[in-house]
Amino acid sequence: MTSILKTENVHLYYGDKEALHGFDMEFEENQITALIGPSGCGKSTYLRCLNRMNDLRNNTTVTGSFKLGDQDIYAPTTDMTELRKEIGMVFQQPNPFPFSVYDNVAYGLRIAGVKDKKVLDEIVETSLKQAAIWDEVKDDLNKNALSFSGGQQQRICIARVLAVKPKIILMDEPTSALDPISSAKIEDTLLELKKDFTIIIVTHNMQQASRIADKTAFMLNGDLIEYDKTSKMFLNP
Ligand code: ADP
Ligand code: ADP
């Protein structure tokens, strides 16, 4: 197994309130890692540290070491646009931009300067296929992404992240706003995606973690309590 992301001695303060209490965690390539634990234990906070999506409005201070390969994520020289491409994020509420499916998925590529229509077409199609939504949208690529169901919107959002070929995809409760069928579709999709990507997913759903995660991290009160192969975490008594 190859380590892709390593964090050490992570502390995070919202003002003077310490929300993460100094733990280490390392992630392996082409695996799904689930972060579980009770509401308020710091799962989202930790996830957002990984691509510097911390809430800066609240006087947030982060310390510790965050390394993507050799790259120091918090180095002053880090190019944030580049970082967010390497470490993409999918949120709980599907949040497609209010324009066409095509333009949603092409968005990051256009920002990266890709202009060739053929190249864009190809990557948009591949990404929508990888996100298992192509068949449902292929005849409606010009339709507003917001006109689709929640589950479809979420898969469009996943395609939007995939299009820029991130190394890591962070997911914060990506299925908890969805119906069980959409949720199951996304779980199946993630199991396919891990062949090409590394996924870190926050979930309050233990069954979900046991179904899809290679490793599971259990957090409590801003600390990492247990971190192991999922098969070992959910041993039947
Ligand atoms: P989880 O994702 O496990 O539910 P969070 O990471 O959202 O937990 O929250 C961890 C703790 O930090 C909670 O006590 C929460 O209220 C607090 N918190 C989260 N975001 C902020 C913020 N922007 N400002 C102040 N406190 C916050
Ligand atoms: P989630 O459960 O999806 O992480 P939350 O409801 O915890 O969402 O947080 C929503 C927003 O409110 C986030 O931007 C978070 O940082 C902020 N937030 C959460 N807890 C607090 C808090 N105690 N004080 C200030 N902001 C908070």
Structure commentary:
Keywords: ATP-binding, Nucleotide-binding, Phosphate transport, Transport. It comes from Apilactobacillus apinorum. One of its GO terms (molecular function) is ATP binding. Pfam families: ABC_tran. This is Phosphate ABC transporter ATP-binding protein PstB. The model has no long low-confidence stretch (mean pLDDT 95). It is built from nine helices and ten strands. The two termini are 29 Å apart. By secondary structure, the protein is an alpha/beta fold. Helix 7 (180-193) links the parallel strand 7 (168-172) and strand 8 (198-202). The protein has a six-stranded mixed beta sheet with strand order 6-7-8-3-9-10, sandwiched between helices. Strands 2-1-4-5 form a four-stranded antiparallel beta sheet, with helices on one face. Helices cover 35% and strands 28% of the residues. It is globular and about 50 Å long. Helix 3 runs parallel beside helix 6 (150-162) and helix 4 (117-130) packs across helix 6. One adenosine-5'-diphosphate is lined by residues 14, 19, 37, 39-45, 55, 58.
